[in-house]
Amino acid sequence: EPEVTQTPSHQVTQMGQEVILRCVPISNHLYFYWYRQILGQKVEFLVSFYNNEISEKSEIFDDQFSVERPDGSNFTLKIRSTKLEDSAMYFCASSPGQMMNTGELFFGEGSRLTVL
Amino acid sequence: DQQVKQNSPSLSVQEGRISILNCDYTNSMFDYFLWYKKYPAEGPTFLISISSIKDKNEDGRFTVFLNKSAKHLSLHIVPSQPGDSAVYFCAASANNAGNMLTFGGGTRLMVKP
Fold first, then answer.
1. What angle do CA B27, B8, A9 make, to 5 degrees?
2. How far is B89 from chain A (nearest CA, A)?
3. A27, A41, A102, B14 — which has fewest CB within 10 A?
4. Mutation target vs B (from A10, A26, A42; most B CBs, 10 A cutoff)
5. pLDDT of residue A102 exceeding 80
């Protein structure tokens, strides 16, 4: 069964460092997303990406965040200068089309980011 | 941000009985609702969804009920199985917000053998 894969599974970084989280969405999917879950809190939407551009983003997704689909298969989330409060589980997701038509998002297993 | 709330952080049910997980929302623009299941160290997995034009959707042991006037939805699992033990998230989407999901805080379901 096709699945969304994420790397790394866990990354520890120093505050102020840049981090890149990588995702390989399901191959025929057109929409891509990043969500995050801070420990003990809700899963929160960060950004959605379609047709090589950001389609929506939340207030969390400020200037320190960026997304890219550099090679047609990978989908990356870059955090330019990490802060302690960026420590969270980051989930990548993809969907074949608009959710109302296709039913659901397919999530990866997550990348745990720990900022020290 | 409490647009989607799951007021029960945990629920314990005996195997074979019905599990009922509840979810309330406040945003009247939400028109599509989903339930996800999450095991530890895994991403959320889609279970079932319902559009606001319906009040019930059934898929095997899982049924979702939507009460728009009360802004309430529930997930029924019957019969419950030990493998159903997981955290269940309710999520909602508004048509004018594309595919952005707003999640509830989750309910941990424990099904006892």
1. 85
2. 9
3. A27
4. A42
5. no
